[in-house]
Design goal:
37% helix
Length: 227
């Protein structure tokens, strides 16, 4: 099976479905990650003026995180951090379309459309457009993940709300999700921040209890075609 994960920022792929990526890899599936944004310039007082070495370091961290999870490839684009709304949607769609054409995924994971972060919402819209079910489209399943500190911080005020209907058991790979996030220097926070090691485990255990397993990552099924 070919799996494509489309994330807005470096570390979103780990936060959203890192344990699921590792599970796919362990089962012999080819997982590729596409990260759309450069992921750092919004942290500066003068957006767009980040040190190029900062960006390179973040990209190296993304590659290491992918290696920890077992992904075969990690491609990074350069959309402006937390300013995807300044880019024509068609330009974002084209980036995703190229990846879909090159990698021919059977399954695609991406952000949920109701996230607080604007880049997440635009990524969802772009992926939905790029994977539209035209004749010959090989994408059988499209699923949306949650990102701690974005999905839940919308507090159900943005539509659509995150109401998962698909749960992937990840007890065996949860530790690798946390290890992968550690590759992103400074992104793993102290508890009770949602992006803490304890916070990530709490979320996985909570979804696990909802469906009768030790730990799970939760997804909204956007489309699933059985052939």
């Amino acid at each position: 099976m070919n799996v494509l994960v489309v994330a807005a920022h470096p570390d979103d792929e780990v936060l959203g479905c890192g344990a699921t990526i590792a599970r796919h890899a362990d089962r012999g599936d080819a997982v590729r990650v596409l990260i759309l944004g450069e992921g750092i310039t919004s942290r500066h007082d003068r957006p767009g003026r980040a040190d190029p070495e900062e960006i390179r370091a973040l990209h190296r961290a993304a590659a290491r995180a992918s290696d920890v999870l077992g992904a075969k490839d990690c491609e990074l684009s350069s959309l402006p951090d937390n300013r995807f709304d300044t880019v024509a949607l068609l330009d974002v769609v084209k980036i995703v379309e190229r990846a879909v054409a090159a990698w021919q995924p059977d399954v695609v994971y991406t952000h949920h459309g109701g996230d607080l972060n604007i880049d997440h919402a635009i990524t969802f819209r772009a992926v939905l457009t790029a994977t539209r079910p035209t004749p010959g489209c090989g994408v059988r399943s499209l699923l949306a993940f949650e990102v701690p500190s974005s999905t839940e911080w919308a507090f159900g005020q943005l539509e659509p709300r995150f109401t998962p209907d698909t749960f992937i058991e990840v007890a065996a790979t949860l530790d690798r999700k946390i290890a992968a996030l550690r590759e992103y220097d400074g992104e793993l926070r102290a508890f009770p921040h949602p992006r803490s090691a304890e916070g990530l485990e709490v979320v996985a255990r909570r979804w696990g209890t909802a469906v009768g397993v030790d730990a799970a990552e939760a997804f909204v099924t956007i489309r699933s075609v059985v052939r």
